[in-house]
# Entry
Amino acid sequence: MMKVLRRSQALRKALDPYRNKKIGLVPTMGALHEGHLSLLRLAKKENDITVASIFVNPLQFGPKEDLRRYPRNFLRDKKLLIKEKTDFLFAPSKKTFYLTDFQTSVSVKCLSEPLCGASRPGHFAGVATVVLKLLNLVRPTALYLGQKDYQQFRVVTQMVKDLDIPVEVRRAPIFREPDGLAMSSRNVFLSETERKEALCLVRALKLARSLTAKGVKDCRRIRREMLAVIKKAPHARLDYAEIVDAATLEPVVKLTKGRKALAALAVFFSKTRLIDNVLIKG
Ligand code: PAF
# Structure
């Protein structure tokens, strides 16, 4: 039976008997899809106990972002988690999670600035803060994050290292629809036309990967070719297309042997912002 906990102290208490067990934490904002479930399955495989959290974290949304319209479907999510044999679900309310005098923010400086951080100021401080709070409550052995939010993975990994948090951060591959679109809770907002055009992201990234496989090292060229693919989608509005170092997230000009890079994209379709990425090697 999955136990649902609504309050931080109740979660702590419920986990007390399992302190000598391996605990896997899968933090989510709900509206679960196969990508989330793949994280849970990995957590389940690698731990004795799995804890999922559902909390649409207001701290990581900007004033003009989609906090209010972010998809929420608690009952459906709960059913899916039960089906995956999740042991604990933590689903706090905003009021009990962030008390009225809450005022702390954790910021991971350089890694939060480029890519999504440039168009979403404060976003990664919001993510780091909520993840640190969840880590302190659950005290898991391992934390599971998806590769789609690669920058989030890097920010959290750096925070864990900088603050000596005793947890292993695990990254699971991007889960895709059969036609290649990266799964996202926000995909439901796409119109039929936008849904078709949204494939430009995965097409551009595939092109980036095949160019590097052919030995192209010039990142400006790879970026140009990625942009050309995005431009072919009439309703796509580019936020960014970048090739960055996979560890520092700093721009890469030329791919070199052994250096891991990340081709990353963010594209708007109307108000819906989609992201996707692929790791490439020189
Ligand atoms: O990836 C997400 O869904 C969120 O950013 C996370 C990690 C649950 C923090 O709110």
